């Protein structure tokens, strides 16, 4: 039997952590909890406590398993191994997102006031910038990166596309920052 690496143990721990957090808070939450918010940050969708706390972690855990499988069965898996940063981003993005969303749902159910829109926008901006930083280093594969028919048809096209896209993604992530800043000013009333 193959021994699990320490990084895999951490990955699976954080993949199931939303279930543990949800189970710990389950007795303290109301029977109906918000599970969707509109663009203004107001809750506009509700579900039962059990569904709201455990459906998203279950979906995210399934996605985490699927990503692990896809990275392993990719015909170009040797190239994925040569792109460790993108491999790590592909794996960890899902579990970080699951943990953040689980915490947001619980805080909302506990009636803790926070600006979800600003937090989510910041996380998206950071995520886009981080992915952009590593896109030029992403080797040709079928699982991660800009996978359209023409980049998958030519390794040269793949490399040129990713080299060009990287700085654009970093800039896109950075350009989200003024949205956060302007919203903070708006909230202060200035």
Automatic annotation (TrEMBL):
<feature type="transmembrane region" description="Helical">
    <location>
        <begin position="168"/>
        <end position="186"/>
    </location>
</feature>
<dbReference type="Pfam" id="PF07853">
    <property type="entry name" value="DUF1648"/>
</dbReference>
<dbReference type="Pfam" id="PF13630">
    <property type="entry name" value="SdpI"/>
</dbReference>
<dbReference type="InterPro" id="IPR026272">
    <property type="entry name" value="SdpI"/>
</dbReference>
<feature type="transmembrane region" description="Helical">
    <location>
        <begin position="116"/>
        <end position="135"/>
    </location>
</feature>
<protein>
    <submittedName>
        <fullName>Immunity protein SdpI</fullName>
    </submittedName>
</protein>
<dbReference type="InterPro" id="IPR012867">
    <property type="entry name" value="DUF1648"/>
</dbReference>
<dbReference type="InterPro" id="IPR025962">
    <property type="entry name" value="SdpI/YhfL"/>
</dbReference>
<feature type="transmembrane region" description="Helical">
    <location>
        <begin position="49"/>
        <end position="71"/>
    </location>
</feature>
<feature type="transmembrane region" description="Helical">
    <location>
        <begin position="9"/>
        <end position="29"/>
    </location>
</feature>
<dbReference type="GO" id="GO:0009636">
    <property type="term" value="P:response to toxic substance"/>
</dbReference>
<feature type="domain" description="DUF1648">
    <location>
        <begin position="14"/>
        <end position="61"/>
    </location>
</feature>
<keyword id="KW-1133">Transmembrane helix</keyword>
<keyword id="KW-0812">Transmembrane</keyword>
<feature type="transmembrane region" description="Helical">
    <location>
        <begin position="91"/>
        <end position="110"/>
    </location>
</feature>
<keyword id="KW-0472">Membrane</keyword>
